[in-house]
Amino acid sequence: MNWYDITFYVFAILTVVSAVGVVFSRNIVYAAFSLLFAFFGVAALYVLLSADFLAITQILLYVGGILVLIVFGVMLTTRAQKVEVKRGILSVVPAVLIAGIIAGTLVGVLTTTKWPAANLSPYEETARPIGALLMTNFVLPFELASILLLVALIGAVIIARREKARRA
Amino acid sequence: MHNFITYYIGTGFWGSLVSSILPLVYIMPYALVTMWLELKISAHMQDRLGPMRTGRWHGWAQPLADVTKLLQKEDIIPAAADKVLYLLAPALVFIGSYAAYAAIPFSPAYIGADINLGIFYIVAVSAIVVLGILMAGWSSNNKWSLLGAMRTAAQLVSYEIPSSLAILAVVMVVGSFNLNDVCSAQSGWFWNWFVFGKFPFLFITFIIYFIASLAETNRAPFDIPEAESELVAGYHTEYSGMRFAFFYLAEYANMFVVAAVAAVLFFGGWNSPFGAYLSGPVWGAFWLISKGMVLVFIQIWLRWTLPRFRVDQLMYLSWKILTPFALLNIFAVGLWVVLRG
To answer: Which of B3, B28, B74, B278 is deepest in the core (most CB within 10 A)?
Structure first.
């Protein structure tokens, strides 16, 4: 066992334990903050695979954007700490169906993917090729994603404005 | 040789450990000196003398006395606080501030991690501070803490956008995220520094970055997160002793991070102002720290001169002034980079 393996296992355990914490935590704020460590662990695993751009983007978007929004939302909800996360069986058939489809997909991906034991290939710069590919081969998905974000942005502004007009 | 420690000790466990602890060895004396400077500068700006007795000469030992007092204080945990998060939050805030030091090129011979995405990494890890502050505010179970934390999050998220866009303009000019490359691109005399050398474009970028970075350090005029007169002390109202010291240290550490990033991006980083004269690994550290300290001084100066922004003014400045100007600036810089070839 070398340092690479030890680091990998430390971060893998961190990720899995925090992910379990997100799912099983009764306190919704704990679930949100467990997500922080799960995201962080995943970013660390990306680093171990020499995917530095992906790792930092993971931190920037998931921790800095999505998680802050989630925590913000949770905290804005009054007495969030007293809200019991709903448990119990609500609707069996759709739940089993959806869980089954997701589980099937994941198991399928798990079994078909080749898992390289360790990425020992030398590190290569990733930001420049990613940028070049986004502007050449993948320019259509890139632009579509931009338009989607623009639509979301305008939608958010419109919803916020309507709220204001109603109150006045 | 970008890191003299890993060069001599090796990139194994000990080399990495020493290399990652070195910035902490810098932050401690830096924070003490800056605390004293802040006491004295604020005093002189208000026509007072400030501390004059502790340690005889102009009260130089005042920060030492303050820190000793702080560490002796009782560590209070409010009964209704959420214990786990309450204890974790100060550490998380400091981790977020300290993590940024990994990618700051202190000298041509020392950068904690010479990664290709240095500046991108610094922008990303500052997000951890936001979460730490939200955690502190929520877990204290105090209305002022919670309000302060919410204000902080809103402010930091808003001002991250103009500051990132300003950084992007420099990245476009250099063509690299690596802060050592940014420094190398500004070598030579001081008129090669981006703030002077690329005059109209990167000077505007610097102004945008500096205003946005002031907001990211949560100090006046952007101190509504802690606004003493409204919120007691904001997100760290309930904290005392060692844990409060952590927030304090993180604030000072953060001040130097934004100052050092500005120094690297716009003022040549570890380059000497006089070309090859007075340059080298040790002089490099001297120049970077001096430039950083000058910018820290300007932060202190502004803090004690300007009144606090209201929440709506804060949002107006970020979304309606800085962000549009930063976008226009990106467009202008991009056009200029393309046309120049």
So the answer is: B3
